[in-house]
Design a protein that fits this description.
With about 140 residues, the chain is an alpha+beta fold. It has three helices and nine strands, in the order βαβββαβαββββ. The strands form two sheets. Strands 5, 6, 7, 8 and 9 form a five-stranded mixed sheet that branches. The longest helix is centred in the N-terminal third of the chain and has 11 residues.
Length: about 140
């Protein structure tokens, strides 16, 4: 007999240099909303952002690096591969808005059978796909 599995991936941790710079980038440049920012009393904070309008979607827990090993992982958490996928229902709109906000795209937009896509970097160098799936 198998046990039931959870139905939602709630959070993914992203190790960052600093809370405020990360919140600024994700809310201003990517248009995410700040869901929670709670002081934990020990100099750390519980900071969650997620794409605006995704009330029940996966959020990012922005965790400030606490030691050298964590600091070394900032921007390289996926070994240089695209590790995050940001879906959109209007690729042109979001690509233009993000470009105007200073987001660094590593390539020109591509139109593939699976949708429109362009790879970009966050402020730490983590690679993301901005993706409008085909038919969306």
């Amino acid at each position: 007999m198998t046990s039931p599995s959870p139905s939602t991936l709630a959070l993914v941790t992203l190790v960052v240099r600093g809370y405020d710079e990360a919140v600024d980038f994700y809310t201003r440049a990517l248009g995410f909303e700040l869901v929670e920012d709670t002081d934990r009393g020990d100099g750390s904070r519980w900071v969650v952002v997620r794409p605006r309008g995704a009330a029940h979607g996966t959020g990012l827990l922005l965790a400030r690096a606490k030691n050298e090993a964590e600091a070394a992982a900032v921007g390289a958490q996926t070994g240089g591969r695209v590790g995050f996928f940001l879906h959109t229902d209007d690729f042109g709109r979001d690509h233009a808005r993000m470009t105007a906000a200073g987001v660094r795209f590593l390539e020109e937009p591509r139109h593939e059978p699976y949708g429109s896509v362009a790879v970009f970097e966050d402020l730490y160098g983590n690679r993301w796909d901005l993706l409008q799936p085909a038919g969306a």
